Amino acid sequence: MKSAYELAMERLEKEAPTRKLSEKTKAELAEIDSTYKAKTAERELFLKEQIRKAQNEGKLPEALELEEQLQRDLRRIQQDCEEKKERLRASQD
Predict the structure, then answer these.
(1) Which residues contact 68 (CB under 8 A, 6 or more apart)?
(2) What burial letters (b/e) apply to 56-90, b meaning 16+ CB within 10 Å?
(3) pTM score of the predicted model
(4) Which of 6, 47, 60, 71 could cross-link 2 (Cys pair, CB 3.0–4.6 Å)?
(5) Which domain holds residue 66?
């Protein structure tokens, strides 16, 4: 007798079959991840330094604005990364 989990996994496999990725595609996905991790780190370093400076100078509204900008930038970078990976996966079909 199959568990509820096994039955759910079978239904999911029927609806959206698992795609096998080639080694080349896996390498390209890893490269995309690496590139966007670097972009994230670069943006974090830059803006966190700006935030620190603003806090040290007592410019709290500016620091809060920079923190919000950092969050927006990180979300945008993550979204760009996921879109690029999804386009690559779609082109492999």
Answers:
(1) none
(2) eeeeeeebeebbeebeebeeebeeebeebbeeeee
(3) 0.75
(4) 6
(5) 21-91
